[in-house]
Amino acid sequence: MIDHTGFTVSDLKRSRSFYLEALRGLGITLVMEVTAEQTGGGAHAGFGSDAKAFFWIGDQGRPSGPVHIAFLANCRARVDSFYQAALKAGGRDNGAPGLRPHYHPDYYGAFVLDPDGNNIEAVCHRPP
């Protein structure tokens, strides 16, 4: 089981704003920020829920991307909400919300490229 994950972005302020908006509909918020002085390296923003950061972005080093990360949604409406919010926040379409039955019959996902070109997905595995 993975406790948390993260990657380097080219512009922390821009990416922080993008993820604040894109992840809100999934119930994921900014939980914590740490400064370069605190880490001895770069600044980082941690997103999660229930006061637990499980997704981190930071500005230490070169951007890590492109990477793919998928966030679990508890219903299809939240996948749709993620997609619309991510586009409004400056993301680029990489796959509109819909079924991907080649994975399994109830795989409902949407894909957006973040400001650094990382493939960010919201997915629901439940039937409608």
Describe the structure.
With 128 residues, the chain is an alpha+beta fold. It has a single domain, classed as 2,3-Dihydroxybiphenyl 1,2-Dioxygenase, domain 1 (Roll), CATH 3.10.180.10. Helices cover 23% and strands 34% of the residues. The protein has 3 helices and 9 strands, in the order E-H-E-H-E-E-E-H-E-E-E-E. The longest helix has 13 residues, at 12-24. The two termini are 27 Å apart.
In short:
The protein has helices at residues 12-24, 36-39, 76-88; strands spanning 5-8, 29-34, 44-49, 52-58, 68-72, 92-93, 98-99, 108-113, 119-124.
Question: Low-confidence segments, ≥5 residues, pLDDT <50?
Answer: none
Strand content: 25-35%
Report the count of strand segments: 9
Mean pLDDT: 96
Largest sheet: 5 strands, mixed
The helix fraction, in percent, is 10-25%
